[in-house]
Amino acid sequence: MLLRFWPGSISVSMSIHHTPFCFICTHLASGEKEENAIKRNADVHEIHRRTRFSSLSGLGLPKSINDHERIIWLGDLNYRINLSYERTTELTSKRDWSMLLEQDQFIRELKKGRAFNGWSEGTLSFAPTYKYELNCESYCGEDPKSGRRTPAWNEAAKLQEI
User: Fold this and answer.
1) Where in the numbering of this chain does the Inositol polyphosphate-related phosphatase domain appear (predicted)?
2) Where does the pLDDT of residue 37 fall: very low under 50, low under 70, confident under 90, or very high at 90 and above?
């Protein structure tokens, strides 16, 4: 097992039943504005560029993220939904995932090829997981005094099979 760390990410390379896996845990740039999505894309590209694993005695082990057969990227990716808090919570209460997904920054950036090129998103059939109040089913932001946090699927795990 090889471990690599860059600010905002930590990566582990290992073989499980002769299959090379790479696990990347990240905390990408935060913020709800469109320019913050551009910063997140830059974070992803920088993590890909800078993450290198040392080779042990020429065993032919993967040296970069994309050299692995299975890649699991998880953590706080921070991609948001490009809708107002009110519209997002309205669609969430109606369980209208397809409308929310049309405005999901991760899906948009993926389709435009600006981040996670070659990856695909699984089917999301559950409410956005960000950001709940502690120990309840209310989203942060329902109380305007605590600050508005538009719900999103930004804390996620992504899988790529090569």
Assistant:
1) 8-153
2) very high
